[in-house]
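From the shared-data thread, chain only:
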Amino acid sequence: MYKDAIQDFLAKPAQEILGAVTSSFHGDIQTTSISAWEGEIDLLQEQLKPWKDVDAYILFEYDIPRLGKRIDVVLLLEGIVFCLEFKVGQTAALQADVEQVLDYALDLKNFHQFSADKPVAPILIPTECARQHWRLQTSAYHDQILNPIIVGKDGLQNVIEDIVLRHRCAINPETWGHQWEISPYLPTPTIIEAARALYENHSVEDITRHEADKDSTDATISYILGVIEESKRTKTKSICFVTGVPGAGKTLVGLDVAVKQSYKTGTFSKEDGAVYLSGNGPLVAVLTEALAQDNKRKCDSRGKKKNLSDSRREVSEFIQIIHRYRDNMLAKIKNPVENGKLEIDPAKAIAREETGYGEWEHVAIFDEAQRAWTHKRLADYLKRGGTYGNKLKVPNFPVSEAAFLIWSLDHHQDWAVIICLVGGGQEINTGEAGITEWLNALNTYFQDWKVYISNKLIEPEYAEGKVNEMLKHNANVTFSDVLHLAVNRRSFRAERLSDFVHAALAFDDQATDLYQDVVNNGYPVYLTRDIGKARRWLRENARGTLQTGILVSKVAARFKPQAVNVLAQGDEYAVHWFLEDKNDVRSSNYLEEAATEIQVQGLELDYACVLWDADLRCKAKEWQYFKFNGRTAWTLERNEEARRYMLNAYRVLLTRARQGMVICVPEGNARINSEGYPEDPTRLPEFYNGVYEYLKSLGMNELQ
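Structure, as C-alpha cells:
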C-alpha cells in the first residue's frame, strides 16, 4: 500500500508516485496494472487540485483482509472516506463492478473501527464513461453509506465537491489520516472467505479480530501447534478436543492448522503435513470448489494458466471428505475381520519407515467430530457395502468410526496428532455418536495417547455431562481453557446469538433478555407469518454481494405452499447454492430453493429466513415432534434420539446467519372445503400457532 498527504501527492512527479506504488505492492505486477496506475495517478493529480491546501490523505491499493482484495484508492477528505474503484478504459458500469465498490464500503463501515462513524462514499469510475450526471443519495439503512455513484473521469472532481459540501464532518486533521491507517480492523470472515485467505498464506491474525479476544482463535491455534511440535519431538501420539459455540471459528482453526502445518516451510510438506477431514460433504465440496476457483482466477491473473481440475486436485491434498480417508484405511485391513480385531493385511499395503501402514499425514483434523458414526451405524453400513464409490463390504466390523480413525493414526511408528473440533448439541443425523465414542475408544484401546481437552467438554451438551467420569482413570489427560472458543465470530453483530438460541429452544426464562441483548447489539431477528414479507426483507438487506437464503429442517415437508423447493441432495447442488452469484437462478439469493441443516452446517449466510414447519411444534412450553408420512398426515415421533436430532436441526438453522435473520412461522390453512372438512389437513393452523405464540412471547419484533 502507498499512502501520502494530498499536498505531497499533488506536488510529486507522477513517475515518482508510480515507483512508490509499484515498490509497495505485494504480489506479481502485470503490465496492465502499471498502465492502470499511471492512468489513475494522472487523473487524480488533475481532479484533486482544489484540495491542495487541505489536510487530506490518499492511499493506493488499500488491503481489506476479509475480502482478500484491495481498494484501488481510498481518499480521506473532510472526514469522509471515499472508496474509489477505477475501471480504466471502460465506457460503462457493470453490475459486478457496482457490487464490488459497494462491498468495499460495507466492509469499511462494518469492520474498520475508524470508519464506523464516518460517511463512506463508494465511487465507481469507468474512465471513458460519458455519464456526468449523478444523484447523491444516502442509503435507506441510515448507516452513512452513500449509494454507489458512477461517474467518468471528467466528472470526479464535481462529485467529490458535492459530497464534501453535504457530508463533511469534524475531524482532527493532524491525526486522522494516521489513525485511520492503523485503525483496528475487526472482520469476521465467512468460512469461504477465511479459507481463501488462509490458502493464500494469510494468517488467522490477518483475517480475524485484532482486539482483546486473542485468547480465542490465535491462542487456540498456537496451543495446538505446540502440541504438534511436542509430539514430534518426543515421538508420542496426542489428541486434542477443541470445543466452541456455533460460529466461534472451530472450522477456521482447523483450516489454519492444516495450512500452517502443511506449508510451514513455504511449500507443501508431505513429511509433516496435516489433512483437514470432515464428514460434512457439502462443506468439503463448497470449500474445495471455492478455493479451486479462486486459485485458478489468481493464477490466470498472473499469467499462469491453470486448469480448474488441477486446482481442485491441489486443494484436495489437505481438505478431504472423511469417508474417503476412512476407505483408504479400510482397503488395507484383513477382510473379513476375524475374532473382532482389526489387522492390516500385508498383501494389501506397504509399510513405510515412519508412518507404518497409516496414511502419510502425521496430523489429522476431524471437523465436527461429534458427528462420527456409532459402531452400529458403521457396522451396518459396511455390512451392506457402498461406501462412497468403492462398494467395499466388511462384515462384522468391530469398532466405531472414532475408534477406527484413532487406530488409523496409531499405525504411525513415530508420532501422530489428532485434532477433534467438537460442536455441542449439533448431532443432526441418526447414528452420530457425539463425543462419547471418542472417549470410549481412548479408554479401551489407546490408553497411551496423550489427551488435551477443553475444560468445557465436561458440560451437559457434550457426552451428556459424563466426560469427567469417563476420564477419571486416564492419567494422560490435560485440561485447558484455551481449547474452548467462546466468542461467536459468525455473527459479528451479536456474540450472544447462540446463547439466545440455546435458551429459546430450552424454554429458559433468560431467552427474553438474551433476545433484547442480541437485537440491541445490532443483530435484527424478526418474526413473521408471511413468506412474502420475509423474502422482501432479505432482498432489501442484500446489498452488494451479501448472501441471503431460506433454510428449512430436513424433516420439513409442507414447504411447497410457501413457493419454496428444498435443495436436492448431492454436494454439487450445495456448491451452486452457496457460490453462484445473484445472476444465477441456482444461487441461494433467488430465495426459491431452501437448504437444510445437512447442507448448511459449518457454512453461513449473511441474512437468512428460517422457515418453520409442522415437524417441531410447541404446546405449553414443550416441544412436540412429528414426521410426515409423505401422503396425508403427520405422525408423532417417539424415538428419543430422533427427537434430539430434530431439535438440534433447528439449533443449527437458527445460528447460520451472520448479520440478521427472520423466522417465518406460516399461518397454516384454516379453510374448509364444500364437504365441511379442512381443505388441507396437513397444514392446520394449530400445528403452527403454538410456535408463533411462544416466539412472540419472547418479545420478538414482527415484520411489517
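Residues 528 and 664 are 5 Å apart (CA to CA).
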